[in-house]
Amino acid sequence: MGENNYLMKAINISKFFRYVEVLKNVNFEVGFNEIVGLVGDNGAGKSTLIKILTGVHNADSGELYWKGEKIANHSVPQARDMGIVTVFQDKALVEQHPIWRNIFMGKEITDTIGFINIKKEKEETEKLMKEIMGFTSSTITPDTTLGNMSGGEKQGVAISRALYFDADLIILDEPTTGLSLSETKKVLSFVERIKNTGKACIFITHNLFHVYAVADRIVVMDRGKIVGNFFMGQISLEELEKKMLEITGTGDAEHFGVYSGRKINPGGLNGTR
Ligand SMILES: Nc1ncnc2c1ncn2[C@@H]1O[C@H](COP(=O)(O)OP(=O)(O)O)[C@@H](O)[C@H]1O
Ligand SMILES: [Mg+2]
User: Fold this and answer.
1) Distance 217 CA to ligand 2 centre (A)
2) Are 257 and 272 spatial neighbours (Cβ–Cβ below 8 Å)?
3) Is 15 near ligand 1, meaning CB less than 6 Å away?
4) Is 77 left (phi over 0), alpha (psi -120 to 50) or beta?
5) Contact assessment for residue 68 and residue 7, using Cβ atoms and an 8 Å cutoff
């Protein structure tokens, strides 16, 4: 498959921190409107990989493509301009501010003489929350202060903000860590909204159960390598769990025939036994 078939594609990415190779010839891609679960143990290299996609780190070797075009000199501002947004837990939002201010922070709607159009910002926020993000709690309005919201809801606000400003790729790095089951469910429902709006998402987690329900595909990382690539609907959670234990237990993905090179086979698991 060519680079054009993907929203973003990383080819043969290597990354060293000092002398330690934390990413080893990583091939990773996200399709248009695809929800990719990126799973693996702590230290596998998940965050480092997304920091390369978002221009925080430079790869030591490899190539990045965005909508079929090779990216030269990637950087944080460039990634942002392309429409790649990372949502971190509790970051980039101001607890003391209401939702509407958080949505428009730094990108205010102004009138002709430069005043912030608060009425319009509140209206847009209300529409966004109701129609796009599906906020269900009737106690939450655009005027609700972030500090009064739960962890899952705050992430919903951050995701809403990204969608409002037309992000094409929303990256969630460990969004469910430390959240209760009901809060986790909220985050998952926001991921479903991302899917419904036609955008793409990379959902990073070390908890397979959290991502299985919403992902189109799950990519497994282990010790700096991509060791598994599974299309949902082709594999049960039980099978996937078993595979993951096998892969991460041995580090020998090829042995299990789970992942072979960078070929993606939409018909099922990569590689054949
Ligand atoms: N800025 C850094 N400097 C040095 N080592 C780092 C840095 N960031 C991450 N690492 C190391 O790279 C490896 C992968 O880390 P990371 O990408 O954060 O893994 P994950 O997100 O899968 O838990 C780990 O061994 C980690 O200690
Ligand atoms: Mg991480």
Assistant:
1) 19
2) yes
3) no
4) alpha
5) no
Residue nearest to atom 10 of ligand 1 (CA): 17
DSSP state for residue 132 in the 8-state scheme: I
**String of b and e for 250-266 (b: at least 16 CB within 10 Å)?**
eeebeebebbeebebee
The residue nearest atom 1 of ligand 1, judged by CA position, is 17
Q: Domains of the chain (ranges plus CATH)?
A: 3-256 (3.40.50.300)
47 CB near ligand 1 (under 6 Å): yes
Among the bound ligands, name the one nearest to the CA of residue 19: 1
Residue nearest ligand 1's atom 2 by CA: 17
CA 47 – ligand 1 centroid, Å? 7
β-strand 225-231 against 217-222: which pairing, if any?
antiparallel
Contact 67, 249 (CB under 8 A): no
DSSP 47-59: HHHHHHHTTSS--
pLDDT of residue 90: 58
Show the low-confidence residues of the chain (pLDDT under 70).
1-3, 89-91, 249-273
Give the global pTM: 0.86
pLDDT value of residue 249: 64
Encoded tokens for 248: 């991460």
Q: Which of 1, 26, 27, 7 is nearest to 68 (CA)?
A: 7
The 10 Å Cβ neighbour count of residue 75 is 13
Return the residue whose CA atom lies nearest to atom 26 of ligand 1: 43
Q: Is the CB of 40 under 6 A from ligand 1?
A: yes
Out of 17, 20, 60, give the residue to mutate to test ligand 1, the one with the largest number of ligand atoms within 8 Å of its CB. 17
